[in-house]
Design goal:
Helices cover 29% and strands 16% of the residues. It has 278 residues and is of the alpha/beta class. The protein has a single domain, classed as Arginase, Chain A (3-Layer(aba) Sandwich), CATH 3.40.800. Strand 6, helix 4 and strand 7 form a beta-alpha-beta unit.
């Protein structure tokens, strides 16, 4: 069954990870996913590639995020699909949806925690700060002006395996649920444990959650992940348990040789493609 949403955002933002290969991922995903809603292509300006306040390419990131907020404020959608781009491409969409659905559960399906702050980040790359930004502890040019979009207890980190020491400390000190790859693969229904059936949820899928031997077309391949079929089962379990308010698909680098059917399997699990008959 196709997931019904109000708007699709195509966001070729690459400056959050400083890897231009993922810019093409937004367009490639848009060609794969049929349009079932209004579709907006968000322009990303080529600003100066410099760091400010510990964040690389901050001016471009802030400008793009403001532009998306303005469009979303004007339309006020209740369900949003974001096709990116890197993991900073859906900040505005997630912030908007947490205001529409205050009890939202966020499933951050990613090999990485994305929980660094500008002061802690070893790279200065905003795609490694995206989730912490939603928690209200990112750069003020990127955080929600209304206040933190999320509480730690709203977050399920799924498939995570590559964490910097400050990220591990944050998870240990806060009520973030972290599900390791083996647990995700063996018991996909475990992701939704303790979450109310039918409650709203947001799924942020970074394709690098998958084992890179199966899904090499990503910006930051990270060994030790679950296979594509296991990730698809987990996504389908979340979609079956919740009322999905938002989905983002990120960090796709289509220039790298890969099997496109595996992308299709993940999109189908999210309700973005229909299974062919027969």
């Amino acid at each position: 069954m196709i997931w019904q949403r109000d708007v699709d955002l195509v966001v070729p933002l690459w400056q959050g990870g400083d890897d231009v290969r993922v810019a093409a991922g937004a367009g490639a995903l848009a060609r794969l996913v049929p349009t079932h809603a209004e579709r907006l292509h968000i322009a990303v300006s080529e600003g100066p590639r410099r760091a400010r306040d510990g964040v690389r390419n901050l001016d471009t990131l802030a400008q793009t995020t403001r532009r998306m907020r303005q469009r979303l404020d004007h339309r006020n959608p209740s369900r949003i699909l974001t096709l990116g781009g890197d993991c900073a491409c859906d900040l505005a969409a997630a912030q908007h949806l947490t205001r529409r659905h205050p009890d939202l559960t966020v499933y951050w399906v990613d090999a990485h925690g994305d929980l660094n702050t500008p002061a802690q980040s070893p790279s200065g790359l905003a795609h490694g700060m995206a989730l912490r930004t939603l928690l209200g502890e990112g750069h003020p040019d990127l955080t929600d002006p209304a206040g933190p979009a999320l509480r730690p207890d709203q977050i399920v980190l799924a498939g995570v395996r590559d964490l910097d020491p400050p990220e591990r400390s944050y998870i240990s000190a806060n009520a973030v649920t972290a599900v390791e790859p083996a647990r995700l693969a063996d018991a996909p229904d475990h992701l939704t444990a303790g979450r109310r059936a039918g409650s709203p949820a947001y799924i942020h899928l970074d394709l690098d959650v998958c084992e890179p031997l199966e899904m090499p077309a990503v910006a930051v391949p990270t060994p030790g992940g679950p296979g594509v079929a296991a990730v698809a089962r987990a996504l389908a379990a979340v979609a079956a348990h919740h009322r999905i308010a938002g989905v983002a698909v990120t960090e796709y680098a289509p220039v790298i040789e890969h099997g496109e059917q595996r992308i299709a399997d993940l999109l189908e699990a999210l309700g973005l493609l229909e299974r062919p008959a027969g």
